[in-house]
UniProtKB/TrEMBL annotation:
Catalytic activity: [protein]-peptidylproline (omega=180) = [protein]-peptidylproline (omega=0)
Lineage: Bacteria, Bacillati, Actinomycetota, Actinomycetes, Actinomycetales
Keyword Signal: yes
Name by which UniProt lists this protein: peptidylprolyl isomerase
Signal peptide region: 1-19
One of the Pfam families matching this protein, by short name: FKBP_C
The PPIase FKBP-type domain, residue ranges: 100-189
GO MF annotations, alphabetized: isomerase activity
Comp. bias regions, Low complexity: 28-38
Species for this entry: Flaviflexus equikiangi
InterPro entries: FKBP-type_PPIase, PPIase_dom_sf, PPIase_FKBP_dom
Length: 330
């Protein structure tokens, strides 16, 4: 079994495993549910290849309705635009989003003129994250340039949404439908983000069973040292410790870069090979649960024993960010 498959099996959301669109509020969901194409890992279609600059204007846009934290839109008096249009309701003072970033957001999506949402993280009570390189073009280009802390309304014409894919029947989106989203931008993470370059070394390089190419705060690759003893149980070794907030417990989403190798060095890879920053959920019963309590920005070595069908492996993990579980306090 390739490393990528073993790593992906441990991830809640990754560049390798993307959910299809769902309008079932009880289904396990991520932001890719309503924004990604049904073939998210394929190259963009010709219609979606060119960059589009959104019209920044609130003219003709719907208004937001907030009912005890559940967000919808009121289309009375609104005029459906035929271009990608963004209304900035509240402008944050954080980092600007780029078209390649992974974003953490709360959002609600509606077909223009509808009175119900087809997808809403507000209703699920948990923000979502996804890579803008794997969503419909209206999301990618509509969020580009907006800043963390902002609330925006994005109106996406069919040709920049689900039109090129013939609509999305499971979400009730027709081929010619304009779709509209309210988006609260919580965080944006560059795909090549790494850990804290100033983290304090805890385990000297000579005490590790691996050799690392790449310093703290940089992309890495690893090889297993000759004669290194194979792990017989899942193990974590704190390599370098940052002063960030400790990763929370069950339900916390943790974002990280990794480089990995099988114990015989026959296979190696890094998260950069699969689009950059990955994420998983603490409490999923995988080796990544050992990141709980480790400060964000730190570097950790995870060791996984072999099985009858796969060799032992090591993964060097740089923790980039986290999203606390619902109900947790910062």
């Amino acid at each position: 079994m390739r490393i990528s498959r073993r790593i992906a099996a441990s991830l809640a959301v990754s560049a390798l495993v993307l959910a299809g669109c769902s309008n079932d509020p009880d289904a396990e969901s991520s932001a890719t549910d309503s924004t990604s194409s049904e073939e998210s890992t394929d190259a963009p279609t010709e219609e979606q290849a060119a960059q589009v600059d959104a019209l920044i204007s609130d003219e003709g846009m719907p208004t937001i309705v907030d009912t005890d934290g559940i967000i919808t839109l009121d289309f009375e008096g609104a005029t459906e635009p035929d271009v990608l249009q963004v209304a900035v309701i509240d402008e944050g003072d954080g980092t600007a989003v780029t078209r390649e970033d992974l974003v953490i957001v709360n959002y609600a999506g509606m077909v223009w003129g509808s009175d119900t949402t087809f997808d809403s993280s507000f209703e699920r009570g948990q923000p979502s994250s996804f890579s803008l390189s794997q969503v419909v073009q209206g999301w990618r280009d509509g969020l580009a340039g907006q800043t963390v802390g902002s609330r925006v309304i994005i109106s996406v014409p069919a040709d920049l949404g689900y039109g090129p894919m013939g609509g999305n029947a499971s979400a009730g989106i027709g081929e010619e439908d304009t779709i509209v989203f309210v988006v609260d931008i919580i965080e944006t993470i560059a795909p090549d983000s790494a850990g804290d370059a100033d983290a304090e070394e805890v385990t000297p390089a000579g005490d590790l069973p691996i050799t690392v190419e790449g310093g703290l705060g940089e992309a890495t690759s690893i090889t297993i040292n000759d004669g290194a003893e194979e792990p017989d149980e899942e193990t974590s070794i704190l390599v370098a410790e940052s002063d960030g907030e400790p990763v929370g417990g069950e339900g916390t989403t943790v974002y990280f870069q990794y480089s990995a190798a099988t114990w015989d060095n026959s296979q190696s890879e890094s998260s950069i090979d699969y689009g950059g920053v990955q994420n998983t959920t603490i409490g999923s019963g995988t080796v990544f649960d050992k990141l709980e309590g480790v400060p964000v920005g730190s570097r950790v070595l995870l060791l996984v024993p072999g099985t009858e069908s796969a060799p032992a492996m090591a993964a060097l993990v740089d923790i980039v960010a986290q999203l606390e579980a619902p109900g947790d306090t910062e």
